[in-house]
Design a protein that fits this description.
Shape: elongated
Strand content: 15-25%
Largest sheet: 6 strands, parallel
Number of domains: 2
Structural class: alpha/beta
CATH architecture of the largest domain: 3-Layer(aba) Sandwich
Strand order of the largest sheet: 3-2-1-4-5-8
Radius of gyration: 25 Å
Distance between the termini: 46 Å
CATH topology of the largest domain: Rossmann fold
Length: 383
């Protein structure tokens, strides 16, 4: 059998990023991980706004270090005719342009997306915006918090009367991942048709898609259940419970059969398993408070590890409520060798491998670029 030699699946693909903050840089970083050449076009002297959010990574921004390794940085002022010519020559050589500039910025720079496609028929243009084109909000700037709020996500997070933004920037991350999948789809389609395309992607549409369960509840029942903090308004029991050793164990059932195993084999409460009010999940949701009180008292008399052993033996999902230090030191990441080193202007830094893995794929160990680090080289390439 011929040995399979790992390769970079996107080698030979060139991506231009008119990008800032999170959504577009996350998309292009994943493309770079898989071997694409990503040229990050930044404003001279300023660069990506995420460069300046903080200086937590030995003087670098934690956002920028997360999202930009494996890229080349070229500093171009696209309002300057000479730099605009360099950019146009780069476009002629590129496969993909990903942009999440402010509303109308592409048009103001003379980069109308439909005209770009006329000049470069094989180009794939991914145009990320906050609220899409058309509608009363298309002119507004859109940051993660703003779109989470506008899209209703904060209202179903937290507890009643206290809406909460997700700690993970779900509007930005969700948009970046949809953009990533859109690029791969467009590349596949171009292989078959020979044509590029313009892909429009609005953050509000991404959040609306992620709100599918709440939307269906409203449309079909007229109401949306209140948020329940560390739990789900649709499932019970499902939440975090404090243990005797002052930890919090997370326990959940996702079917009526699991509830039977949980009641009988974990709690050792046949009376709960037989209670007609609790046989079906809707009844358990109705009596969530009573159930949480029972489970909370039971967990309070046991150590976390003992509860998890019982739950594992019964085939019941469980976890520990972790924090960021616990995640960084997590053996599930360390023992599976999920960490790698990438270069940067301040030395080698630890970063995580991308989530999707294949033994056939090489993951690029790229560097985090300084602002304009590759300008001279790329100007030379562009003639």
């Amino acid at each position: 059998m011929t040995p399979r030699i790992p390769h970079a699946p996107l080698e030979g693909v060139t991506v231009l990023g008119l990008e800032q903050a999170v959504a577009a840089p996350l998309c292009t970083r994943h493309l770079a991980d898989l071997g694409a050449r990503v040229i990050k076009v930044e404003q001279p002297g300023v660069g990506d706004s995420a460069r300046h959010y903080d200086d937590a990574v030995r003087g670098l921004s934690s956002h920028f270090a997360w999202l930009n390794h494996g890229k080349e940085s070229v500093a171009l002022d696209l309002a300057d005719g000479r730099d605009a010519e360099v950019f146009d020559r780069l476009l002629a050589q590129a496969d993909v342009l990903v942009s999440n500039l402010a509303p109308g910025a592409l048009d103001r720079l003379g980069l109308n997306r439909d005209q770009l496609l006329e000049r470069h028929p094989r180009l794939i243009v991914v145009d990320i915006s906050g609220y899409g084109r058309g509608g009363p909000l298309d002119h507004k700037r859109a940051y993660d918090l703003l779109v989470q709020a506008e899209g209703g996500a904060c209202a179903i997070t937290g507890v009643p009367g206290q809406p909460v933004k997700s700690g993970i920037p779900i509007a930005d991350v969700g948009t970046g991942l949809y953009a990533f999948s859109a690029v791969l789809t467009a590349l596949y389609d171009r292989d078959r048709t020979g044509r590029g395309t313009v892909v429009s992607l609005a953050m509000i549409d991404v959040v609306a898609e992620l709100m599918g369960v709440a939307i269906n509840q409203l449309i079909h029942t007229g109401s949306v259940p209140d948020p329940v903090g560390m739990g789900s308004p649709m499932v019970s029991p499902y939440g975090a419970y404090r243990t005797r050793d002052e930890r919090q164990v997370v326990l959940g059932t996702t079917s009526d059969r699991e509830w039977q195993r949980f009641a009988l084999k974990v709690l050792d409460r046949p009376d709960l398993a037989e209670d007609p009010r609790l046989v079906r999940n809707p009844g358990r949701v109705t009596h969530r408070g009573e159930l949480d009180e029972i489970i909370g008292a039971w967990c309070g008399q046991r150590d976390c590890a003992d509860i998890q052993r019982l739950a594992d033996a019964a085939g019941i999902g469980n976890a520990v409520l972790n924090d960021v230090p616990g995640l960084v030191a997590h053996p599930q990441l360390t023992l599976r060798e999920r960490w790698r080193q990438v270069g940067s202007p301040v030395g080698d830094l630890p970063v995580l491998l991308p989530p999707a893995a294949s033994a056939d794929w090489l993951i690029r160990a790229g560097q985090i670029p300084a602002l304009g680090e590759h300008t001279a080289k790329i100007r030379g390439e562009a003639g």
